[in-house]
UniProtKB/TrEMBL annotation:
It comes from the Bacteria. Its main location: membrane. Pfam families: HAMP, HATPase_c, HisKA_3, PilJ. Its EC number is 2.7.13.3. Keywords: ATP-binding, Cell inner membrane, Cell membrane, Kinase, Membrane, Nucleotide-binding, Phosphoprotein, Transferase, Transmembrane, Transmembrane helix, Two-component regulatory system. The lineage of its organism: Bacteria, Pseudomonadati, Pseudomonadota, Gammaproteobacteria, Pseudomonadales. SUPFAM superfamilies: ATPase domain of HSP90 chaperone/DNA topoisomerase II/histidine kinase (SSF55874), GAF domain-like (SSF55781), HAMP domain-like (SSF158472). InterPro entries: GAF-like_dom_sf, HAMP_dom, HATPase_C_sf, HATPase_dom, His_kinase_dom, NarX-like_N, NarX-like_N_sf, Sensor_HK_TwoCompSys. The chain crosses the membrane at residues 160-183. One of its GO terms (molecular function) is kinase activity. This is Sensor protein. It is a multi-pass membrane protein.
């Protein structure tokens, strides 16, 4: 089974190389040692052969003939056995072509061909002949050559052994150096890098990389470290970004809550939804990166929601009642950049409600690319709760004002009826008694004129008192001014015998209860004059909102006013002008060129009341 670990494989290769080097070194050393085993003995024996040759010649010349012949033969045989000693034969290669083998054969040939015959032919005890000396010298030369070659061969084998040992040592040193170099580059340096990276990660520095090449375990570990640091850096930066985002959201939420808190006090103190809400909503738009924001209120007499305020528009809203206020007006360029439906925007609709009642809807536009965070949505939901509370409280205040006003008018009407009306009735009875007196003489015309003036004045005062009592007793039993005016128009249409044209476009709750009553009374007075005195056949009533003022007009095609002024002893127009001054406006009565009279009432509403709410379906 092969290892799949490159590092282990590399270490195994290094160790295997060292072991292989040691085995080769020991094997070659053993082989060389075996090859030179016995060479020293052979050299000694070869050297002894030289001495033996001289001894043979010397003894053959000195021994006596009787005893020396047998001894000489034995010595020659013994010497010949020494020539074929196993030590010498083992030192001589078996190959015939080897120089040492040839030299050994030449030495044997010199023995067999020259020295041995010379010794055998020499008579024991006789002097040595020059031929024998020459034969010995030739033989000794061959022996010397053999000894020299044995020595050279032995020295060569020893040198080879030294060379093999040196090569093995050098190779082992190179392997060890390569091993240390590899350990340094492949193990120690990567380990230092990994330790440094681990320390840097501990200090939140994820920029350092190992960049280890290769496929071994440390390279894989370095790649894992690089991937880990990259993922840690990404996670850390994401966490930092989320923490930063949450911090920013908390700061924005804190600022938004401060804005809503400060604006809520103005909203509840001034009871002005437009002036109180628009600055707050615009600040929220800047803080949350949203907008525009629109507030729609639900009127129980209107099928569609009524837009109450907006934070950004390029044209003054129809419902605007203050042309000195430019809080919601922006340039067309700014308006075109806002995230509306046709400009990559999304809309969020949030209900403004109290338990059991739907008061309105808050429309919030925000960029589609950016989206709306959960924190921003919670802030807007908090805003709707705040607006719901303000609207609900304002409705209660409005209802209480209406009830208080109705009670005050009832009290005034009762007091006028119980005091001034009775006094005028008493005076009328006294005038009637005076008329019944039979006054004669020259003073009769004067008395009659005085009684006529008293009667006229009392009748006029009594009529004005009845109108005041009707005014104070007038109540808006209908939900709003529009319904009351429709009932009034229907009433006078029956009295006229022809339908009265009616046009009305006031936004709901544009007028306060007091303004509604005065406007209704002025229109009733104008209709009454047109029906009673003008002999008109066509009458039209228009109540229009020409921001910031309200314009109410009553037109007829009757006979018009004589001389362009009001009739004698008729105080209706005076009362209408008084009512108009109460509203801060004016009433204008003119004869029309095409015939008839036009009564025009214009005034700027001073109230800024909220729209009544309708109950949401269960």
């Amino acid at each position: 089974m092969t290892s799949r670990s490159p590092l282990v494989n590399r270490l195994a290769v290094v160790i295997g190389a060292i072991v292989l080097t040691a085995i080769v070194s020991m094997s070659t050393t053993l082989a060389v040692s075996n090859s030179i085993e016995g060479n020293a003995t052979a050299i000694n024996l070869a050297g002894a052969l030289r001495m033996g040759a001289f001894q043979l010649i010397a003894r053959s010349a000195t021994e006596d003939y009787e005893n020396g012949r047998a001894t000489a033969g034995a010595r020659i045989n013994d010497y010949e056995r020494r020539l074929e000693d196993t030590a010498i034969l083992r030192s001589v290669p078996s190959s015939d072509d080897h120089p040492l083998a040839r030299q050994y054969r030449q030495m044997l040939a010199a023995w067999q061909d020259e020295l041995k015959p010379a010794l055998e032919q020499h008579e024991v005890g006789t002097p040595i002949t020059p031929a024998m000396v020459q034969a010995v010298e030739d033989y000794i030369q061959e022996v010397d050559r053999l000894v020299t070659m044995l020595e050279q061969r032995t020295e060569a084998r020893v040198d080879l052994l030294h060379l093999i040992q040196i090569i093995s040592m050098v190779f082992s040193v190179l392997i060890v150096i390569a091993l240390f170099y590899d350990l340094k580059n492949r193990i120690l340096r990567p380990l230092r890098k990994l330790v440094a990276i681990a320390g840097a990660v501990g200090e939140k520095d994820f920029s350092r990389k190992a960049d280890l090449k290769g496929a071994d375990e440390l390279a894989q570990l370095g790649q894992a470290f690089d991937q880990m640091t990259s993922e840690l850096a990404l996670t850390y930066y994401e966490l930092e970004a989320k923490a930063r985002q949450k911090t920013e959201e908390l700061e924005v939420s804190h600022q938004a809550l401060q804005v809503m808190h400060s604006a809520s006090r103005d909203l509840f103190a001034k009871h002005d939804l437009c002036n109180g809400a628009i600055p707050m909503l615009q600040e929220l738009e800047l803080l949350l990166g949203i907008g525009p924001i629109r507030l729609f209120l639900h009127d129980k007499e209107s099928a569609e929601p009524v837009e109450a305020i907006t934070t950004a528009t390029d044209k003054r809203p129809f419902y605007c009642r203050d042309h000195h206020c430019n809080a919601c007006l922006v340039t067309p360029e700014v308006y075109d950049e806002m995230p509306l439906e046709n400009n990559d925007g999304r809309r969020l609709l949030l209900p403004i409600r109290t338990p059991g009642q739907l008061l309105g809807t808050l429309e919030v536009w925000y960029p589609a690319a950016k989206g709306l965070s959960a924190t921003s949505r919670r802030l807007l939901e908090t805003l709707t709760d705040q607006l719901a509370t303000a609207i609900f409280l304002e409705r209660q205040i409005t209802e209480e004002q209406q009830m208080t006003l109705a009670e005050e008018r009832t009290v005034i009407a009762r007091e006028l009826h119980d005091s001034l009306a009775q006094s005028l009735s008493y005076l009328k009875m006294q005038v009637t008694r005076l008329r019944r007196l039979n006054i004669t003489g020259d003073q009769k015309p004067v008395h009659d004129d005085i009684l006529d003036e008293l009667s006229t004045g009392l009748n006029s005062a009594y009529r004005q008192l009845r109108e005041l009592l009707a005014t104070f007793r007038l109540k808006l039993d209908t939900p709003d001014l529009a319904t009351a005016l429709r009932k009034t128009v229907d009433e006078f249409s029956e009295r006229l015998g022809h339908p009265v044209d009616f046009e009305y476009n006031l936004p709901p709750q544009t007028l306060s209860p007091n303004e509604e009553i005065h406007t209704l009374q002025i229109i009733r007075e104008g209709l009454a004059n047109a029906v009673k005195h003008a002999d008109a056949t066509v009458i039209s009533v228009k109540v229009l909102f020409e921001s910031p003022q309200v314009r109410a007009s009553i037109r007829d095609n009757g006979k018009g006013l004589p001389g362009g002024d009001q009739p004698v002893n008729h105080y209706g127009l005076v009362i209408m002008q008084d009512r108009a001054r109460t509203l801060g406006g004016k009433v204008k009565v003119d004869n029309r060129d095409e015939g008839g009279v036009e009564v025009t009432l214009t005034f700027v509403p001073k109230s800024r009341n909220l729209i009544p709410t309708e109950s949401s379906p269960a």
